[in-house]
């Protein structure tokens, strides 16, 4: 095997996403999907776009969507970049801003795609250990580097970084691009989008997959000053002129217009998260403070892997990472109230406790 | 400008796609779109998929679509790869199969994205001159190389290569991957898909954008033996787990099932192409023999750029490439009969002739 592969392809260790079961019906708390459907305005816009004009290429510059995003986030359209999911946007950030000669810095416990991108594009990196409470330390991010990636809130911990913390990293690294991956920001962290105008080294990446319930549509976006957006466009236009199809463009625009729906569904998830955290603590779990649509939990008596398997047998999928420091933790997506009831009941049973 | 860009990003010269006008209504014969709408089965499948399940990630392995493609093309699902348009599939081929140490070979006149991919991924290439009739010469493709890319039919010429020609390149290069880009194959060339089982170095790339009228949906695919498909999956899963959204998956499956529609619309275009070629010849044009949904034409008396501008003034967009050897040619997409009538009338007027 691997004959005729490029040297780079031979060396890759791809990212492994959470399971998407095709057969059996599970309670799916393993990939941080939103339990509520997308906005009816998004679905209506998609149905309207499913018409004869699909024979035509989409707008390669995604002008309308960038205008709607700019208006929604108080920026100019030339400060906005869009891509086929925030994973693609992140991959293009790695290509546009990082060179092999100096290491990229990111936490040791974070979104595990960052190391994969670095390997794919032949970049070096240094992983900065989070402290014992999974907080991001400040000093190590001020050391010599070729770029910084920070997820806020962090995954899979859910812990948020303050705006002053982000600002300190930006100000301490005027010659490096700092990518703040805000996939989960709408569930309780403070976005760095307000810093875009004043910090020419900042890129804020967000997604429609989580708070806007559109994981199935693949739309991510980045905010930065025009200079960095131009670099992202150069990379994108050297890879694929048309990364967003007409339906994704239409659906994303529809979702962005329905601000009330975003607010209602994220508030609901935030309340369910609080209630679930209490229930899990009463079952003896340690629960990391979460600003995301998931909880990162550990039990002192029963191994996370045992709970993972036991939940699966009971029809509930959660996520476990077989990695140093976090192998006794489970990442549990916040579902509906009923789904979290079922989760807590199953965990109580597994722990031999009253739920 | 360009501060904080990576070295690679600074050096890029992105591909420039044909214009997608957003305001004025043109007769659009500039980007090889299909003049007929997508299959009603594709549109119905998309509308059905525009539902609550869009909150969930798509199947990262695109299993259903690969099964439908495999059944449709007489292959096994593990011989099929899918991507976000054939441009993305091609880009991943460059990453998966080519190394910087030996040059990739492709014709000097061909799809101009190939040089852009090579630059993006730090690869070297050698452009093989087509002969004076734009035919692909055989000998130069048997020289030492690190990979080969051939478009069949070629773009922007429309000329096809015979199956025996493709076979000779495959057999002369057992240690190189040969990518045959068949974006336009359904309009009259013979596909190399029948060679996949016997040639472990062959990758056939196709798209739903042209013959299946789905340029707006962004679905491309590749056929190859399982070893090469595994390499493509390694690259794809190191870049973006979910390159196809749920709507693209559904629409592509719907379109593939409607074989009758594909046949009827491609036959219609083939007939319009023949009739248009006759009309253009009678206006004095030299018309390259086309197996694609476009014609590549040159007039001995009037410069192509003059005709391009004149047509634009008359509301008709065609494509002109400001490049050596072909700067006196226009690439004209085959539209509806009415659109081609309008084209011929406008050209007759520009040439001062009776239409």
CATH topology of the largest domain in chain A: Aspartate Aminotransferase, domain 2
C-alpha end-to-end distance of chain A? 51 Å
Cα-atom Rg of chain A, whole angstroms?
20 Å
Strand order of the largest sheet of chain A: 2-8-7-6-5
| Topology order of chain A in helix (H) and strand (E) letters | HEHHEHEHEEHEEEHHHEEHEEH
Poorly predicted runs of chain A are none
CATH architecture label of the largest domain in chain A:
3-Layer(aba) Sandwich
The share of residues in helices of chain A is 25-40%
Q: Approximately what portion of the residues of chain A adopt beta-strand conformation? A: 5-15%
Continuous helix count of chain A: 11
| Oligomerization category of the chains in this entry | homodimer
Largest interface, C-beta closer than 8 angstroms, per-chain residues: A-B, 88 and 88 residues
β-strand number of chain A: 12
Mean pLDDT of chain A: 96
Overall shape of chain A: globular
Largest sheet of chain A: 5 strands, mixed
Number of domain units of chain A: 2
| Coarse structural class of chain A | alpha/beta
């Amino acid at each position: 095997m691997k004959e005729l592969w490029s040297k780079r392809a031979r060396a890759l260790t791809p990212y492994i996403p959470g399971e998407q079961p095709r057969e059996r019906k599970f309670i799916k708390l393993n990939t941080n999907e939103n339990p509520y459907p997308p906005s009816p305005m998004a679905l209506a816009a998609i149905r309207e776009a499913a018409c004869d004009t699909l024979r035509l290429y989409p707008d390669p510059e995604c002008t309308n969507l960038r205008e709607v995003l700019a208006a929604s986030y108080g920026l100019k359209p030339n400060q906005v970049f869009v891509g086929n999911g925030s994973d693609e946007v992140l991959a293009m950030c790695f290509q546009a801003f990082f060179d092999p000669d100096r290491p990229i810095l990111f936490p040791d416990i974070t979104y595990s795609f960052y190391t994969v991108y670095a390997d794919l594009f032949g970049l070096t990196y240094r992983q900065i250990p989070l402290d014992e409470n999974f907080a991001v330390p400040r000093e190590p991010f001020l050391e010599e580097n070729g770029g910084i990636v920070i997820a806020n809130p962090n995954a899979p911990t859910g812990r948020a970084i303050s705006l002053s913390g982000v600002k300190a990293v930006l100000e301490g690294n005027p010659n490096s691009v700092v990518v703040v991956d805000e996939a989960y920001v709408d569930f309780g962290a403070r976005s760095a989008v307000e810093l875009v105008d004043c910090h020419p080294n900042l890129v804020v990446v967000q997604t429609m997959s989580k708070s806007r319930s559109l994981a199935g549509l693949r739309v991510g976006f980045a905010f930065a000053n025009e200079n960095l957006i131009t670099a992202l466009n150069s990379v994108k236009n050297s890879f694929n002129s048309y990364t967003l199809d007409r339906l994704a463009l239409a659906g994303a625009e529809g979702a962005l217009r329905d601000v009330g729906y975003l607010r209602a569904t994220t508030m609901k998830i935030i309340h369910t998260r609080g209630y679930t955290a209490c229930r899990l603590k009463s079952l003896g779990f340690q629960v990391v403070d979460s600003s995301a649509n998931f909880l990162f939990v550990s039990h002192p008596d029963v191994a996370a892997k045992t709970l993972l398997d036991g939940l699966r047998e009971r029809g509930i999928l959660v996520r476990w990472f077989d990695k140093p420091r976090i192998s006794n933790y489970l990442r549990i997506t916040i579902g509906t109230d009923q789904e979290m009831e079922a989760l807590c009941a199953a965990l109580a049973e597994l722990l031999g406790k009253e739920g």
